[in-house]
Amino acid sequence: MPCRRRQFLAGALMMGSGFAWPAPLPQAALLPPLAPRQRRLANGLSVLSLPDSLPGGSSVSVQLWYRVGGKHDPQGRAGFAHLFEHLMFKSTRHMAAEQFDRMTEDVGGSNNAFTTPDVTVFHCQVPANHLEPVLWAEAERMANLNVDQANFDSEREVVKEELRQRVLGEPYGPLFHAIPGLGYQRHPYRRPVVGELAELEAATLDEVRAFHARHYRPDNALLIVSGRFDASRLDAAVDHFFGSIRAPAEPLPRLDISEPARERDTVHRIAALQAPQPAAALIWQGPPLAHGDGAALRVAATLLGLGESGRFNESLVYRRRLAQSTGFELMLNAEAGLIVAHAIATGQARVTAETLAGALQREVQRLAQEPLLAEELAKAKAQLLTQGLQARETAEGRALLLGESLLLRGDAQAAERELAATQGVGVVELQRVLQQWLLKAPRQTVLYESRKAGVMT
């Protein structure tokens, strides 16, 4: 997920010697439901507001979610949505470049943005008394952004350099960069969100302006305000700053592309021109984010890939010493998804990419076919519950949950239900989804090793 300034938050629970994990408590006993107020302006802008009822709160989170992501990039122009993640911080008719940073950071707040295959999100957190200036600034960025040659050239170079340094210049960056293109056959999800150098270089200002006019409009956006605010004053400010923005007469563009089912296993080889050790990735087709199997798959992902005690790390890193790092990711999007396992070899053992691929597959098979201790399952559920609690600790975290639930899952309460559903996953359901989505499904195997011919096959 490309982002303007990356920030990561992770937490894991470790099992101590002789410690028995208790059965998870019902979600209702632990978490108050997120119950936002929803409204829609005449121009189509959707608004969610969630006041903070906790004592002592003094900040507010403002997020603007645009329904435009990597899947909306024009054919042959991968990276346009990501480019606008950067352009939105440049000048507008009434704001200087980077003025949004000054309006948030200089008053003790923060701001950031990220682009996914489905959406682009601009989010900030400021003291509550700075809410109205931030709302004005977001409306200004929506209505009056300067999409001119100077801003375009400047931010295109920033995006290209980000791609060179964070992806192509990293030893294992080309491996992970290739996964969407190998995992998807037809869906636009196969194009990398961060972009491609040649396609960004070939883009013209007219193409960029047309992309902006198609997608960055009130009827294609969701405004979320969470934290300390007065509801009536918020409504008045939103109506004042956003209500006068006209939605274009042209209808919103629609994507109607389905991803076909894989029919056979495939092996891909990628030349690792600068990686010190081989690596491997296994790719399976996954369900959409809102699919009913998502809760059980998240429990499986936790058991296999979360933390130092995940099964991949315990087996490949610590016990067999085949890998220096491993991972298991659910890359689930609104319309389709991928499930990815990967491992990078350690220098302490002479192993091939094929060895890593086989070891990953065997751990998946063990979880899907062998008995599972109740304590291990309870631990995974506790880890997921802890993550859910951490995500709800701040106004910004609660707003992010609401945005994902509404725009990617179709229901503002979807995150609440999935968290509850993970606590009810049993061994039978867990092993069923692993059998269905991984063991009985075609697999893409990616072998990443140093080779004389740098050609993918």
List keywords for this structure.
alpha+beta; 40% helix; Cytochrome Bc1 Complex, Chain A, domain 1; 6-stranded mixed β-sheet; 5-stranded mixed β-sheet; globular; 15 helices; 457 residues; 11 strands; single chain
Describe the structure.
- By secondary structure, the chain is an alpha+beta fold.
- It folds into two domains: 33-242, Metalloenzyme, LuxS/M16 peptidase-like (Cytochrome Bc1 Complex, Chain A, domain 1, 2-Layer Sandwich); 266-449, Metalloenzyme, LuxS/M16 peptidase-like (Cytochrome Bc1 Complex, Chain A, domain 1).
- The protein is built from 15 helices and eleven strands.
- The strands form two sheets. It has a six-stranded mixed beta sheet, with helices on both faces. It has a five-stranded mixed beta sheet with strand order 7-11-8-10-9, sandwiched between helices.
- Helix 9 (294-305) crosses helix 12, helix 9 packs across helix 15 (427-439) and helix 11 (353-369) packs antiparallel against helix 15 (427-439).
- Mean pLDDT is 90; it is low at 5-29 and 453-457.
